[in-house]
Design a protein that fits this description.
Layout (H helix, E strand, L loop, with lengths): L2 H45 L4 H23 L8 H15 L4 H21 L9 H23 L1 H5 L18 H30 L1 H6 L6 H12 L2 H6 L7 H18 L1 H6 L1 H70 L1
Helix pairs in contact: 2-3, 2-5, 3-4, 4-5, 4-7, 4-11, 5-13, 7-11
């Protein structure tokens, strides 16, 4: 090996070490801030549960715009058209401008403890404190349920002010005239709002911006990511989505998501009526996100490191092969030149 090659290897190794150290330092800082932030949130939840809604609003107005900027750079910004962001925007507007509208509160409760909460579990959102992106993903799905839990059970002054127009204020809440009233505002109206989102999403992503996606396959949406992973794994979701043929996979995805939304929305009715069931559900959600985070750190991350090392080794192994081919080609050329010289003489 020549001195130039040695110096190049040293410089590459030195630069790689610098990059690795910067990445490690950044991850440690993110982990520290994530743990401290989560601890502060838990403290506020126990000490001042009435302020949790303001923590949530602050989180939304800071991190969602930052996520849009980051996702725009990564070509992931169409993720922000997903239902979870649509619902979170409704939550923010409700808490800031219509906090005492009982019916609107029930719709928000249904969204938060229905599709959003179960998406946290089904899509395996992971609470990994060293990743800002994963922390934000978990909180987008977890915080709304905790906010409406505190309002539903721990804030009598807040929900005591909610009452139908034309009726006096009351100490008891919710004001449920009948089961039909409960199902209307916890099930049917939320489903109508969901289907409105689905229509708007389809028009924007699959009609108005269709050519954009055809031109650039790197632009990602939820459907693109899920179908890509399902196809690679050839799992049950890929087979189910293909029941109507490959050309109708998008339609099957919409239908499956609709079934998921209907089922999880229906489950919010018993949760709304039972404090014990609601507490158990909160524990279940937090435990699932922590469990998924541990699985990511102990299983997924090591496999990613191994794959990177294997790719690195494969790249390094191709370098000697190429150099051998070059040397053989040069020696063959020299031999031919020598033979031609002898022949001419």
């Amino acid at each position: 090996m020549s001195s130039n090659e040695e110096s190049m290897e040293d410089s590459n190794g030195h630069s790689f070490g610098k990059v690795k150290q910067r990445f490690k330092d950044r991850s440690q800082v993110t982990h520290l801030m994530g743990v401290l932030g989560f601890g502060a949130f838990c403290f506020i939840l126990g000490a001042r549960p009435k302020d949790i809604r303001y923590v949530y609003c602050l989180f939304y107005v800071i991190f969602v715009p930052l996520r849009w900027i980051y996702y725009r750079y990564k070509k992931w910004h169409y993720y922000l058209l997903d239902f979870c962001y649509y619902a979170n925007t409704i939550f923010l507007v409700t808490l800031l401008f219509f906090p005492t509208k009982e019916k609107l509160f029930m719709v928000c409760f249904s969204f938060a403890e229905g599709p959003l909460a179960w998406a946290l579990i089904v899509w395996r959102c992971s609470l990994v404190f060293s990743s800002v992106d994963k922390i934000v993903s978990v909180f987008i799905h977890l915080l709304p349920g905790l906010v409406f839990f505190t309002i539903r059970w721990w804030d009598p002054e807040f929900f005591g002010a909610m009452h139908p127009e034309g009726t006096p204020e009351r100490a008891s809440w919710p004001y449920v005239e009948s089961q039909s009233y409960l199902w209307t505002w916890l099930f049917w109206v939320p489903l109508a709002a969901y289907f409105l989102w689905q229509v708007l999403y389809y028009l924007i992503v699959d009609v108005l911006r269709r050519q954009r996606f055809l031109r650039d396959p790197e632009v990602m949406t939820s459907y693109r990511e899920l179908s890509k992973k399902a196809k690679k794994a050839n799992n049950v979701w890929w087979r189910v989505s293909g029941l109507l043929g490959d050309q109708n996979r998008l339609l099957m995805y919409i239908l499956l998501q609709a079934v998921f939304t209907v089922a999880t929305t229906a489950l919010t009715v018993p949760i709304f009526l039972s404090y014990k069931l609601h507490v158990v559900f909160q524990i279940f959600k937090v435990s699932a996100s922590i469990w998924n985070g541990g699985n990511f750190m102990l299983d997924v991350m090591p496999r990613q490191v191994i794959l990177k090392e294997e790719k690195k080794k494969s790249k390094m192994s191709t370098v000697p092969d190429q150099s051998d081919e070059i040397s053989l080609h040069e020696s063959a050329t020299e031999t031919n030149n020598t033979s031609e010289t002898v022949h001419s003489e």
